[in-house]
Amino acid sequence: MAQKFGGKYSPDGTSERPGKAAGTLASPPGSLPVRGKARGNMLFIAPFPLLFTAFGQDAVGMAVDFLAAATLFLGAYTLAEGLKAEAAFEERKVARRPAIPRKIIAATLAGLGVTLAAFSPESGGMVQPLIYGVIATILHLAAFGLDPLTDKNVEGVDQFQQDRVARVIDEAEEQLDRMGSAIQRAGDRKLERRVEGFQATARQMCRTVEEDPRDLTAARKFLVVYLQGAAEATSKFADLYARNRDPVARDKYVALLDDLERNFSAKTETLMVSDRSALDVEIEVLRDRLQREGVRMN
Predict the structure, then answer these.
(1) Would the pTM count as exceeding 0.85?
(2) What is the pLDDT of residues 199-228, one digit of tens each?
(3) Taken in order 56, 62, 67, 70, is the CA torsion positive or negative?
(4) Which of 159, 142, 257, 148 has its CA nearest to residue 199?
(5) What is the rounded distance in angstroms from the CA atom of residue 113 to the CA atom of residue 75?
(6) What's the CA gap between 214 and 111, in Å, rounded?
(7) Contacts of residue 82, Cβ cutoff 8 Å, sequence gap at least 6
(8) How far apart are CA 280 and CA 282, in angstroms?
(9) SS in 3 state form for the chain?
(10) Would you call 86 exposed, middle or buried from its count of C-beta atoms within 10 A (0-12, 13-18, 19+)?
(11) Which of 95, 134, 263, 292 is the most buried (most CB within 10 A)?
(12) CB-hemisphere CA count at 13 Å for 32?
């Protein structure tokens, strides 16, 4: 979807909150370059020659070529989704492995598509097409690799607590994505940027919890209840504002975002201060123990 670029001197370049610098916003998941994306996009071109060669064959040959093209296209699409899932996994400090191994499935589909494309009803043999398919699968895996097969965890924290963090963060990201999709229906670029600012603030809390899963209890209400309410409010506002462009409703919605962002920022700062306090306590305890052991520290 095309987006209009803006800046300080663009027609809509004014900020909803002048005191907030745009450069301080955290990058949302998926905003960083996806490794292998350009090479993966090239695979969408592979099925097109089969669409032309299919019309020069009999019914069986045409059906096989169309099926091969569809399989290759599906494999390219599955690979693109797998690369995005892998990039999101790499950005997170605590994450569960993708439930569906999309890159492995994409390699299998690529091999099947090449097998069908190499098959000829006149030759009647399947040995050579199968060999081509196996080679294509191996090359696909060599070029794009495997999906993440293990969860990403933080050392020193038990598995149960890390699973809880991963589930809550996944749900929080889902609600934030829902907000971003909903506000686009309002057709107001300034509001979209305002929501992006709130999303960055909420994701900062997510990153703080990922760094220390012990903060989950204190942040759970924010990441579950408040974000779900924010997503619901955004969806209802977007539908209303798209119909009548009510300025009063717009002001109330912006005020809601301001209030939510202040609360999220304050809570995140509280979590970070708590972490620093806990670290100071641990350092003092360690210092006292070393002194008892006869080690003097300046």
Answers:
(1) no
(2) 999 988 888 887 777 777 778 888 888 888
(3) positive
(4) 257
(5) 8
(6) 45
(7) 98, 101, 102, 103, 105, 106, 144, 147
(8) 5
(9) CCCCCCCCCCCCCCCCCCCCCHHHCCCCCCCCCCCCHHHHHHCCCCCHHHHHHHHHCCHHHHHHHHHHHHHHHHHHHHHHHHHHHHHHHHHCCCECCCCCCHHHHHHHHHHHHHHHHHCCCCCCCCHHHHHHHHHHHHHHHHHHCCCCCCCECCCCCCHHHHHHHHHHHHHHHHHHHHHHHHHHHHCCHHHHHHHHHHHHHHHHHHHHHHHCHHHHHHHHHHHHHHHHHHHHHHHHHHHHHHHHCCHHHHHHHHHHHHHHHHHHHHHHHHHHHHHHHHHHHHHHHHHHHHHHCCCCCC
(10) buried
(11) 95
(12) 14
262's CB contacts (< 8 A; 6+ apart) are: none
Position of tokens 């098959």? 119
* Number of C-beta neighbours around residue 60 at 10 A: 11
Structure tokens at 76: 């390219």
169-183 pLDDT, tens digit per residue, is 888 888 999 999 999
